[in-house]
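Handout, page 2. Input:
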Amino acid sequence: MYMTVSETAAFLSMPEEQVARYVLEGRIRAVHDGEQYLVNTSQFDTHFQQLELAKQALEEWQMTPIPEDVDIKDED
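Output:
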C-alpha cells in the first residue's frame, strides 16, 4: 500500500518534515509520481516487528529477579 509523505508521517508518528528529509536522504524508499512522493508501507513491517521483539526482551529483563550474591558477608 502506498501513502503520501503526510500520511506516512501520521502512520509513523513523526513530523512530516522529518519523513520528507528521510525520503530525500534515501533512508525511506519512495517513488516520485511527478507530483509527490509515495511511500510503500511494507518496508516498515520488519521495523515494527523488531520493535515488538525489543519491547518483549526489555519486559523479560525487567521481570528477571536480581540474583543474590554469594560473596556478600554479613558484617554484623
